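Risk register update: the risk that structure generation would not scale has been downgraded. Supporting records follow, first protein first.
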Amino acid sequence: MKKVELNNMKLINEFTNIQNELLPKVNLENSFDVNEIKTIIAGVDLAYWDVNNTTYGTCCIAMIDYYTKEVVEKVYSYGEINVPYISGFLAFRELPLVIEAAKKLSNEPDLYMFDGNGYLHYRHMGIATHASMYLKKPTIGVAKSYLKIENVDAMMPKDEVGSYTDIVIHGDIYGRALRTSHRVKPIFVSCGNWIDLDTSTEVVMNCINNESRLPIPVRLADIETHKMRKQLMYG
């Protein structure tokens, strides 16, 4: 067996143990009243690139006013990525940059929305859920594509804005496929932590405009990561 494969197996065992230890801390109930969301929703996304066999990444956080949808603040972090890509353990690769970017915020968000999964994960520990343990705020996962688990397909919702179908595996609701725009592919919403699925859906839908199927904070963070990647790659 190759050295890389052995190292990955050790990481998988280590990361699995950490995820299993964190799982009891996940609470899929609101730690707040949705009417008490004061102002700010933060969107989080990351992008990667390679230079001379070294992988680098940038994390961008874009914050908007929940009611006016105006941009409040944008920050970013970047650096070398030292954890290899291993399916199901993306958080370990991304967390250092997420935490570093969050430390730069001058405003305190009420909630973080991630471009990625939360409870909709093999061990219910996607980036949105895992990151909540460090950010200490409610989190939501918003994925562009479906992470297939236990060979269970997601049933597509009706082609009506706001319609959805829950993703149920062995009786457990992992997340939902949500139609945010007419005649456009759904997105996949899941709880991160300290928020329930209905509230997650409500918050996401309240952050949708006619420019994208993605909620505004996530879309802005996605745009910023691509800008920063280009800038950092080429100066």
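Supporting record for the second protein:
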Amino acid sequence: MKYGFSQKLFGYFYHSSCMKQAKRQHLQIDSKAIKQEYRAILTRAKDIGKSRLMSSYCMGAYFIALNRNTTLSPEECYALYKDGLSANQLFHKVMGNADSYLDAKKLPARKKWSADSHKRKYENDWVVDILEGGANDDFELGYDYHTCGICSLCRDEGCFELARYLCRMDYVLADMMHMRLVRTQTIAEGATHCDFRYSRIDSTPGKNS
């Protein structure tokens, strides 16, 4: 795929977050090698067009590059990634909060995204069904992902086992936005689809336990 402005911007964001965290932990990491590998991965990656989840595709590419160019284990790389993004206040602002994410006004665009995704124009792009929570549901917004771009990218790069670490980042991002995420299965763990269910965190004691 083309290594353009969006890919460079997301890469810079993830890289700066991780390198600042590495410095806080006094880790010796070859920053240049990671950046070069990140670019190489995306350059040979299958195109996903103007996907809504390009940032996630780039996140997967960067995580692969990080693993390949450090002596850290995948678990240690995940911790570095998680802590680096969590400490980045700009990232918190970009992610927004539960009110902005769960805004009902965004539903029509999400449903159009879902319909377009089922055309499967790009092999590695996500294919998703959108679920709107009703009065009797315990969630407000749901996603059933039938194809995962990160899983596809990791498979293409011969490191499918790394995809499950990126799955864990979904909970980190939900926490940042003060949302509750419930998920019972993922493609990375061998399921046919990933089932995401989001809701606001109720302040009533024990409500979300």
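Residues 136 and 199 are 13 Å apart (CA to CA). On this basis the risk owner (M.S.) recommends closing the item.
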